[in-house]
Design brief:
Number of domains: 1
Number of helices: 12
Length: about 290
C-alpha cells in the first residue's frame, strides 16, 4: 500500500507514460488478453480493416495500460485534488435539469476512459449509490473501498439488497451508477446485439427507470492526451426505455456503441463481452427461452 501511495503522487503525464509500457507488457504476456482485444476490436466495425485497425489497436493497448495506473491517483490522492482532474464537462446541465425537476438520475457509464472519475465527480455534488463486487485480494478490496466511497458515494452489494438500495435511492431523487456493458448473470439478462454479435445484456436500467420515472444518461470520462486530466460527456437517453426487456437492451447497447465510436481507443476491448454465462440460453437457438 505504501508503494501505491508513492506512485499516486507522480504527475499524471508520467503515470500515463508508464501505463503505455504496462499496456504493452500485458498485451505480450501469455494468455487470451491480446487475442480477445484484437478480435473484439477488429470485429466491431469501428475501424477500416488494415492499417486503420492496426493503428487503433496500438492506441488501444496504450490506453488500456493508462486505465490501470491512473486508478492510483484517482483512489489515493486527496479528494479535492482528484476532483481537479476533471477539466471540463459537456452536457452536465442535462443532469442538473433532471434533478431540478425532482427526478432520480441513472448514470449509465460504459467502460470508457477513466470511468472511475464519474462517481467521484457526481458524489462531490450529490448523493450517489453504486453496486460493488469485492475483489478476491484483500489489499485491492481495501484500496477500492477507500477510493470509491468518497464524498457522498455509497457502495452496495451486487445482489437483491443492492438492487433495493438503488431503487430506494432513485425514489429519494438521488443518483445511481450502472455499468451497462458487463455480462449479466444467468437469468438476469437478455441477448441483444452489441457491435453485430450477441451479448448477454443486463436489464436493470429499464426496470429501475420504469419503477421510478428516473432520467437516464450515458456518461463517458474521456482521457485527455498528455496526462491533462479528463472531460466528462453526458448524453441523455431520449424517451423512456421500452417495457420489453429485449427492446430495452437493444436501446442500451446502441447507446453504448454510439459512445464507443466517439472514443474507440479508450474502450475496454479486452473484456469478454460476448461470453455465455451459466444459466443463460443459447443465443443461436430460436427455441431457447
Amino acid at each position: 500500500m505504501i508503494l501505491f501511495k508513492l506512485l499516486a503522487r507522480l504527475p499524471l503525464p508520467l503515470l500515463h507514460a508508464l501505463g503505455i509500457v504496462l499496456g504493452w507488457l500485458i498485451y505480450w504476456a501469455p494468455g487470451r488478453h491480446a487475442a480477445r482485444m484484437r478480435n473484439n476490436l477488429f470485429d466491431s466495425g469501428v475501424c477500416t480493416p488494415g492499417s486503420d485497425c492496426r493503428r487503433l489497436l496500438r492506441r488501444t493497448i496504450g490506453e488500456s495500460g493508462k486505465a490501470i495506473v491512473e486508478l492510483l491517483p484517482v483512489w489515493l490522492r486527496p479528494y479535492d485534488t482528484v476532483l481537479k482532474l476533471v477539466r471540463d464537462t459537456r452536457g452536465w446541465e442535462h443532469i442538473d435539469a433532471a434533478r431540478a425537476a425532482g427526478k432520480g438520475v441513472i448514470v449509465i457509464a460504459p467502460h470508457i476512459g477513466c470511468f472511475e472519475m464519474i462517481n467521484q465527480y457526481y458524489a462531490a455534488r450529490h448523493p450517489f449509490t453504486a453496486m460493488y463486487k469485492p475483489p478476491r485480494q484483500p489489499v485491492l478490496d481495501a484500496l477500492m473501498l477507500s477510493g470509491r466511497q468518497r464524498g457522498q458515494a455509497t457502495l452496495v452489494p451486487t445482489d437483491l439488497s443492492g438492487v433495493r438500495a438503488l431503487l430506494a435511492a432513485l425514489k429519494r431523487h438521488e443518483g445511481i451508477g450502472i455499468l451497462p456493458d458487463q455480462v449479466a448473470t444467468g437469468g438476469d439478462g437478455v441477448w441483444a446485439p452489441f457491435f453485430g454479435r450477441p451479448a448477454y445484456t443486463p436489464t436493470l436500467v429499464a426496470s429501475l427507470q420504469r419503477k421510478t420515472g428516473a432520467a437516464a444518461f450515458f456518461v463517458a470520462a474521456e482521457r485527455l492526451s498528455w496526462g491533462r486530466g479528463y472531460r466528462l460527456h453526458v448524453t441523455p437517453v431520449e424517451d423512456d426505455l421500452p417495457a420489453d426487456k429485449t427492446a430495452a437492451a437493444v436501446r442500451i447497447n446502441q447507446g453504448v456503441e454510439a459512445v464507443v465510436r466517439r472514443f474507440p481507443a479508450q474502450y475496454l476491448w479486452s473484456y469478454n463481452r460476448h461470453k455465455r454465462p451459466g444459466g443463460a440460453p443459447d443465443p443461436y437457438d430460436p427455441t431457447a427461452a
